[in-house]
């Protein structure tokens, strides 16, 4: 499972956020990255730079089953907004991805090393009940991921949230839809942990369980 929205509400003095995580199901993946506000701005307000790396595996079928392994990196300029209503980010920047196929699928334009332009938005509305979103689009590769999370604050003292999530992701070779439960809670030392689990179905294949873990820290 790819990176999904992970930034916590920010204070005026916060400068950035670090995040990492991964997941497994019908495929597997991991990521690590961070966002830093530019001088004169702060986390949640103004401009920032985001950078990260990710990698993983997935499968799809043509006349035979293809195993894909990928690794990628990206950097983006981010415009941030926040207030009592929640927060939102809009970003754009270059990406590079290297994809290895076994067996080699010459009809797959994503094979090998490719440069792309990535567009992304993420954010959240509300507090007691919160609707969070994450959306990412690779312009050249036509890769995408869209996620919605609805959570409720079940413990104001601990900051624990519980809810549900839905995800659709893919590229020209496959589409995968997922539905599951989600829990987010502070871990101490400024870190927040997230756990999701549910069922994931790829077009033409039976549904399979998935699980993902993530951590983030505002600084």
Secondary-structure map with pairings?
Elements: E1 16-25, E2 27-37, E3 46-61, E4 65-83, E5 86-102, E6 112-125, E7 129-138, E8 144-155, E9 160-171, E10 174-188, E11 191-202, E12 208-218
Antiparallel strand pairs: 1-2, 1-12, 2-3, 3-4, 4-5, 5-6, 6-7, 7-8, 8-9, 9-10, 10-11, 11-12
Can you offer a commentary on this structure?
The chain has no helices and twelve strands. 34% of the residues are buried. It is mostly beta strands. It is globular, with a radius of gyration of 17 Å. A hairpin with a 3-residue loop joins strand 3 and strand 4. The two termini are 25 Å apart.
Briefly characterize the structure.
This protein has 219 residues and is mainly beta. The chain is 0% helix and 73% strand. It has a twelve-stranded antiparallel barrel with strand order 1-2-3-4-5-6-7-8-9-10-11-12.
Radius of gyration: 17 Å
Helix and strand pattern: EEEEEEEEEEEE
How many individual helices?
Answer: 0
Major sheet size, sense and barrel closure: 12 strands, antiparallel, barrel
Q: In which order are the strands of the major sheet placed?
A: 1-2-3-4-5-6-7-8-9-10-11-12
**Proportion of strand residues:** over 45%
- Got a strand count? 12
Q: Give the overall silhouette.
A: globular
List the uncertain runs.
none
- Mean pLDDT over the residues: 93
Distance between the termini: 25 Å
């Amino acid at each position: 499972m790819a990176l999904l929205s992970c930034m916590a509400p920010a204070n005026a003095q916060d400068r950035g956020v670090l995040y990492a995580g991964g997941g497994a199901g019908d495929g597997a993946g991991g990521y690590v990255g961070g966002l830093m506000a530019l001088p004169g701005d702060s986390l949640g307000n103004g401009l920032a730079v985001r950078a990260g790396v990710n990698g993983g595996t997935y499968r799809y079928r043509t006349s035979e089953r293809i195993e894909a392994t990928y690794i990628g990196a990206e950097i983006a300029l981010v415009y941030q907004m926040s207030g009592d209503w929640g927060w939102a980010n809009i970003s754009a920047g270059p990406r590079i991805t290297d994809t290895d196929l076994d067996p080699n699928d010459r009809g797959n334009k994503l094979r090998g090393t490719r440069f792309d332009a990535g567009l992304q938005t993420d954010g959240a509305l509300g507090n007691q009940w919160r609707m969070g979103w994450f959306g990412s689009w690779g312009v050249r590769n036509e890769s995408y991921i869209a996620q919605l999370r609805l959570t409720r604050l079940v413990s104001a003292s601990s900051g624990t949230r519980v809810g549900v999530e839905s995800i659709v992701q893919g590229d020209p070779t496959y589409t995968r839809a997922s539905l599951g439960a989600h829990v987010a809670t502070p871990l101490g030392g400024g870190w927040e942990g997230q756990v999701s689990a549910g069922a994931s179905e790829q077009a033409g294949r039976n549904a399979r369980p998935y699980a993902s873990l993530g951590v983030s820290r505002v600084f």
